[in-house]
Amino acid sequence: MSRTTKKLAAIASTTAAAALTVAVTATPAMAWTAGNFTATLNGTMVINAGIPAECTGSTLTGTIDANGNLTITSASVSGCGVTVTPNNLPWSGSLNNGVATLNGFSMSAIGCTYGGNLSGSFSGTDLPVSATFANQKVNKTSGWLCPGSATVTATYDFAAA
């Protein structure tokens, strides 16, 4: 191998190694824009503990990190016909590979408290996205003469705040 060929091979090898380093250390294509978000109820939320309650308003606020991890620091619910109170904030969750989760979800109404984790779906790679939670079972965590579980159905539109 001639001296010129060796130099060209060394340059090509160095260039390939540099390109591989950039490719390996680059930000993943699925990274979220980190920051504050607001999630607004799209349609109605149905909480069914034997008798369905339809709520017409709900807002979640918090932060999202670059990996899609959520911290919900504030939640409100309105238009249910009864007072519904979100509990045990902050909640956690994520938007990851089309799966939306809300962990630690807890709400009380008429002396009954239900809680658990919600799992739904979404599409998109950055805010804004809509996440749908359909017929998610949450168990009774407190209350007397309350059904043992309820289901929650809701769609939230997540947007940067």
Mean pLDDT: 86
CATH domain fold name: Porin
Structural class comes to mainly beta
Proportion of helical residues: 10-25%
Count of helix runs: 1
Order of strands across the main sheet? 1-4-5-7-8-9-10-11
Number of strands: 11
Between the first and last Cα atoms, what is the distance in angstroms?
62 Å
How many domain units? Answer: 1
CATH class: Mainly Beta
User: For the CA atoms, what is the radius of gyration?
Assistant: 23 Å
SSE topology string: HEEEEEEEEEEE
Name the beta content range: over 45%
Shape category: elongated
CATH architectural grouping: Beta Barrel
Tell me the major beta sheet. Answer: 8 strands, antiparallel, barrel
Low-confidence stretches: 3-29
Notable traits:
single chain, mainly beta, eight-stranded antiparallel β-barrel, 1 helix, 14% helix, 55% strand, disordered N terminus
Q: How is this structure best described in words?
A:
Residues 1-31 form the signal peptide. The protein is 14% helix and 55% strand. The protein contains 1 helix and 11 strands. β4 (57-64) and β5 (69-78) form a beta hairpin. It has one helix spanning 3-25, and strands at 35-41, 45-48, 52-55, 57-64, 69-78, 85-86, 91-96, 99-109, 112-122, 129-142, 149-160. Mean pLDDT is 86; it is low at 3-29. The protein has one domain: Porin (Beta Barrel), CATH 2.40.160. It has an 8-stranded antiparallel β-barrel. The chain has 161 residues and is mostly beta strands.
